[in-house]
Structure formats: C-alpha cells, structure tokens
Write a structure and sequence with these properties.
Elements (H helix, E strand, L loop, with lengths): L3 H7 L2 E6 L8 H12 L5 E4 L8 H14 L3 E7 L5 H14 L3 E5 L17 H12 L4 E6 L10 H13 L4 E4 L5 H13 L6 E5 L5 H12 L5 H10 L3 H21 L4 E5 L5 H10 L8
Parallel strand pairs: 1-2, 1-8, 2-3, 3-4, 4-5, 5-6, 6-7, 7-8
Helix pairs in contact: 5-6, 9-10, 10-11
Length: about 290
Amino acid sequence: MSKITDIMKKRTTFSLEVFPPKKETGMPKLMETLDALYKWNPDWVSCTYGAGGSAKGLNVDICQSIIDAGKTRALSHYTCVHNHKENIVQDFRNYMDMGVKDFLVLRGDFLPGENATHGDFNHADQLIAFLREKFGTGITIACSGLPEGHILSKDRASDTTFLRRKQDLGADFIITQLCYDMDSFKSWLDEIHRAGVNLPIVVGVMPVLNVEKCIRYCVSMNGSAIPRSLARVISRYYYDPEGFREAGMDYTVQQMYEYLQLGVNGIHVYTLNQYKDVEEILKRSGLFTKSEE
C-alpha cells in the first residue's frame, strides 16, 4: 500500500475524521455514518483518541472496523498524555498488526484537574522523535498545525518553531486545526515557509452547521477568530437554525475552494460523526465523486 504522502505527490487528498462516541451504545450510529461516507472514497479516515486516552478502547475498535471494511485506510490519533515508552511501543505494534500505519501524533488534552501529560513525553515533538527511532519509515506520522496558535502558546512564533522541530524530528505531513480566518491562515503559511517548514499541508475543515457549536469551537475550545464573513452569517441567522445550517454549508464549501486555491495538499473534513450534512457539503462542492450503490 502506498503512503499518504505518495498520494499527495499525485493529487490533492480527501479525508474524514470521526471520534469515539461517549458510550459504546453510540457505536452502531457511528458505523452507519462510516458506511455512508465510505461511498465518497476518502483516502483515509482518522479517529481521535480522547483526553488521556479516555476513549482508547473505542479508538482501537473504530480503527479495526475501518480496516475490516476494506474501503480505505485508518489513521489513528495518538497522544503523550498518560503514555509511557513501554506501553507506547506495544500500542504501536498492536496498531501495526491491525494494519494501521498512519498516525496523527499530538501532545493531547489533559484530563480534567490535571496540568501535565503524566507520561514520558511532554510535547509532541519528543514523541515523534521516539516513534521515528523505534519504527523508522514503517509508519507515517502527521503532526498538528495551528494557524492561529495554540491557546497555551505565548505567541505564534513559538508555535512555528516547534512545528519546524516536528518536521526535523520526523513528521511526514501537517493536519491543521480549524481556522475560519483566511487572512490568519495565509499569514501562517508565509510564516512557516519562511521558517523552512515545507511539509505537505492537509487542512482541517470544520463544517459550519450550528450557531452555538460554531462559537464554542472557536472561542471556548481553540481560541480561534470568527472573521467578519462568518460573523455576518451568525448574525443574520442566529434565530434561524435551518437558515444557518443552509448558509453554513455554503460557507464551508466556499472555504474549501479558498484553501485549495492556496495550494494545500489535502482537505480533511471533521464529520462530527454525522453524515447527512457532510454528504450535502461534499455534493455542493462538486469536488468529490460518490460511488454508485
């Protein structure tokens, strides 16, 4: 099987992200979502990990289901939080035995009440270096890119410095966090390129579907800006959920176009474990082809 980075050398990639449901009873609905979205021929589907590995078991189950479906490849998130060298090596051997060889390596969110990883690594660059030493080119490592900076970083310059370290220590490509502010994204591109970061960039696209969630994702979770263009959509449809959903899908499609005009290497859609709205966005964009039944 070719590597994700090999695909990027030929064309722009398309991928999707899901997350483990809070309860195992939510798995059948997620499987329904995956079955529907496989028809859009994603190059891979990623699965998140959960704070401190809190959803680790379901992460493994979901990755296994993606592999078993035989429709695409699975990319698993993996974090530093509460992970130590011995169990990390075993975890990655287990993933590789399953057929998972692609990973997004992160520091990860701390568990409630904690302010440290409580593992052997404090930052993603350290874990990337360890994994590259242990597994060589047998795995593909993605790292996160934060166009508007990490909420705990003192400035974007430090973020750029650590992104360059991730590249130097073995990362293969970048997946960005959500960013609705295209001006910030463009200036970030210029900044990382000046710093010598030349990894392929896959843009994480968060669909605009719900007013409250949109504001929460930006303000309370990622410290991201709400640009004037999006603020106008929010203001116009604040009391009209269906109107906001319709306008938000068009906004999401337009943002995909703008990202692609910048020459990014991939579009990575955060599905929110829903498929109907995501399918409509993919259809409206005209960028993707759905397989026939």
